[in-house]
Amino acid sequence: MTATTTSARSDLSELGRSETALRTFLHGLPGVDQVGAEQRAAQLGTRSIKTTAKAQAIDLAIRMVDLTTLEGADTPGKVRALAAKALRPDPADPTCPHVGAVCVYPAMVPHVAEVLRGSAVHLASVATAFPSGQAPLDVKLADTRAAVAAGADEIDMVINRGAFLAGRYQEVYDEIVATKEACGDAHLKVILETGELATYDNVRRASWLAMLAGGDFIKTSTGKVPVAATLPVTLVMLEAVRDFRAATGRQVGVKPAGGIKNTKDAIKYLVMVNETVGGDWLDPDWFRFGASSLLNDLLMQRTKLTTGTYSGPDYFTLD
């Protein structure tokens, strides 16, 4: 790390001590060219890959899936079955890779932990009054600590969008810092809920705020609002993690979540990652898909490439 990078990191670490400093920095970030971002995302979305490269992309995408169920009707049996699927997505094909993680509510964590124990699949839990983020801080932190104590090694927290949109950046920053501390050794993914942030400039500011406060990942969405992950929003977030690493030397992951349902869309995201931030992020440690139905389509396409025929989605179990 250069002396310049070390100095930049030191300067940025001071921002969280002052609301004024945070505001000045965040509003001093370059504005996002909305037309340019949308055109760039659309252009990247037209790229196609074939044969061997497509097979490699599908296997990589499977390894990047956070297989998720976040429903009020979730049961111990349902999440245990999901965890078993995460370990062996295609029981008929032992060459099929496992997914990146299983993501559930805190109450379901112990049941998933029983299945995943000793495996390389991570156990993620939403926390901090998901999905609204509207709860007292002590409740949010208790939620986080309980999930980690039960076995979660990744926490997906939601920011208080009301505080962010009202310009109370210090409050949002402090909550992320406190949640990161409550995580202990668990990684922290910070959900921005980009569909509620209204502008790409706000997405860029929220991305930087989350990273400055110590987030290990920035994540688009809860999947509980009408507008979830989009290619232009993810492009803005990828540019933010690229610029953040250039300024500080610290790499932060990105997780688009919600609305990514098929292999074609997943590959568009992988192309965008490669073209925007490069191969360093083409790894499950640095890029994930938050999804439930995506995995089945990836498995269908994988089977088509290897056997020449499609299997129905229910062949791999319906989640």
From TrEMBL:
Keywords: Lyase, Schiff base. One of its GO terms (biological process) is carbohydrate catabolic process. InterPro entries: Aldolase_TIM (IPR013785), DeoC (IPR011343), DeoC/FbaB/LacD_aldolase (IPR002915). One of its GO terms (cellular component) is cytoplasm. The keyword NAD does not apply. Pathway: Carbohydrate degradation; 2-deoxy-D-ribose 1-phosphate degradation; D-glyceraldehyde 3-phosphate and acetaldehyde from 2-deoxy-alpha-D-ribose 1-phosphate: step 2/2. PANTHER family: DEOXYRIBOSE-PHOSPHATE ALDOLASE. This is Deoxyribose-phosphate aldolase. It comes from Micromonospora wenchangensis. It catalyses: 2-deoxy-D-ribose 5-phosphate = D-glyceraldehyde 3-phosphate + acetaldehyde.
